[in-house]
């Protein structure tokens, strides 16, 4: 699947030197959206997951329909301060700053096979932090799936699981 015609490239956002890959056109076109979800679900099925995990925030847009196609549930890994109840957190570095992710300790993930879904793999910090959180709560992360990978940033080298992306760019 070639997502390139359906991605808007916004230079110098959120700061000079960074190109933002906007997935909004994918979401606007029903055929492209259906094809994207189907491609992600097909890739996820290879790993026989028990649950699909979406990363805050754009990963949420795809984890739910992927989980539904596979007859599975989904769990959210969110930015710090966004989840109620007891949570554990993991801080990490972004290519343009720092952030913290959280997961609720009440989610039943112990021993479950998990596939992570997000929109973009850049330096790998966000997904590595999510993997750490999921491992801490007893999940077995088996793969990470993305719409876009910025291969020149070598984020997949930070991850300890299979990585698949529907569209790859150098930067």
Structural account:
This protein is of the alpha/beta class. It has one domain (4-169): Rossmann fold (3-Layer(aba) Sandwich), CATH 3.40.50.2020. It contains four helices and nine strands. The protein has a seven-stranded mixed sheet with strand order 5-6-4-3-7-8-9, sandwiched between helices. Helix 2 (30-45) packs across helix 3. The chain starts with 7 loop residues before the first strand and ends with a strand.
Overview in brief:
The chain contains 4 helices and 9 strands; from the N terminus they run E-E-H-H-E-H-E-E-E-E-H-E-E. It is an alpha/beta fold and 171 residues long. It has a single domain, classed as 3-Layer(aba) Sandwich (Rossmann fold).
Can you write the helix and strand succession as a string? EEHHEHEEEEHEE
Total number of distinct structural domains: 1
Mean pLDDT: 96
Strand content: 35-45%
The geometry reads as globular
Named CATH topology: Rossmann fold
Class derived from helix and strand content:
alpha/beta
The order of strands across the largest sheet is 5-6-4-3-7-8-9
**Low-pLDDT stretches:** none
CATH architecture field: 3-Layer(aba) Sandwich
Describe the largest sheet: 7 strands, mixed
Radius of gyration: 15 Å
In CATH, what is the class? Alpha Beta
How many helices in DSSP terms? 4
What separation lies between the terminal Cα atoms?
A: 19 Å
Topology, number of strands: 9
**Helix share, percent:** 25-40%
């Amino acid at each position: 699947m070639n997502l390139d015609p359906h991605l808007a490239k916004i230079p110098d956002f959120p700061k000079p030197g960074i190109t933002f890959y906007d997935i909004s056109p994918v979401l606007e076109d029903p055929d492209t959206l259906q094809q994207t979800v189907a491609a992600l679900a097909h890739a996820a099925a290879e790993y026989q997951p028990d649950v699909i995990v979406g990363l805050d925030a754009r990963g949420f847009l795809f984890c739910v329909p992927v989980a539904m196609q596979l007859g599975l549930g989904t769990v959210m890994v969110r930015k710090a301060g966004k989840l109620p109840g007891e949570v554990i957190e993991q801080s990490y570095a972004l290519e343009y700053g720092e952030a913290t992710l959280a997961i609720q300790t009440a989610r039943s993930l112990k021993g479950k096979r998990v596939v992570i879904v997000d929109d973009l793999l850049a330096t790998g910090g966000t997904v590595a932090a999510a993997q750490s959180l999921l491992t801490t709560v007893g999940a077995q992360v088996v793969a990470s799936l993305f719409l876009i990978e910025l291969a020149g940033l070598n984020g997949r080298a930070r991850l300890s699981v299979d990585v698949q992306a529907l569209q790859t760019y150098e930067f």
